[in-house]
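Quick one:
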Amino acid sequence: MITRRQAMGLGAMAGLGWFAKSAAAGETAGSAGYYYPEESAPHERTFMQWPVSSAVYDDTRVLAETQRCIARIANAISEFEPVVMLMDQRHQSNARKLLGQSVEIWNIPTEDLWCRDSGPSFVVNGKGGLAITQFNFNGWGGKQVHRNDGKIAARVAEHLGLRQFDNGLVGEAGGVETDGRGTLIAHESSWINRNRNKGSRQEIEAMLLEAMGADKIIWAPGIKGADITDYHIDALARFTGPGVVLIQMGEEVDPDDPWSAAAFETHDRLAAATDADGKRLKLVVLPDPLDVRVKSADFVSSYVNYYVCNGGVIAAQFGDHAADAEAAAALAELYPGREIVTLDIDALGRLGGGIHCATHEQPKV
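Output:
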């Protein structure tokens, strides 16, 4: 592992080829004193994206169900803070039938709904400064069309008149978790992967630290190629604040199940690690739900893929009443003073994601 200070030194070293060219293009978020806040910090608004692409959704019934689910999430969040839904203006009249009047619509074209990954990633500098750090979304390594989605972050930055930092890193915000105080956790499979970044592990780590304004990354291997994201960390483990990580996993490892083995490996890496302040992490473990409504093997039933907003936590329930209740109770304890709202988001679980994947916060400065 390297610190952000060492990463800055790497950018100045000769002979790093691709990485040095990217870093030399201008200031990074980290070198300019910006950082990516932890999600529970106050928000100005939430961004979401309206799914519309027939290249992604060849079944119109699935698309309609997905749009209803996205509207349900947006309407729930709008009870706590402003929500902006991004879409091409030609879809607005139909979308407005599902969206509450408090949900604002901006004319920024989209293809799909995964705003955590293709939407704007904001950084702050502690002096009231706000900017966007680019992750250069490329459809999770070229796996999906992204002619519009790949331009969303830049278009939001232009709309808001914000500065953009871009050191050439390619990836997604769903693939990294931050405590907002210098520590990141991530799976190598979704960053140190040639479908996104062609540098060495050390170079990519340095770039990610600079893009996030952080000091230390705790890596776990993850899994390449098993899903479209190459195993984003936010489906498994989330910072709930400095020093505390919520992780969802089974009671014991199944060596024949690569997802189970990877989850336990991530748990063990986190349990053995220290954060940027040199302190051990506290791990809170949630069990997987078993008696869920959707029985498909590909269904994602992640409780940790929740979204924290001003005064609330918007989370999933999957029909396993005992597990749903345990997850809601754990979130209430981890986020005291916030209302826990649970929703049926099975439509997103069928697509391999959840509420966190569909949202992106703009910090309040």
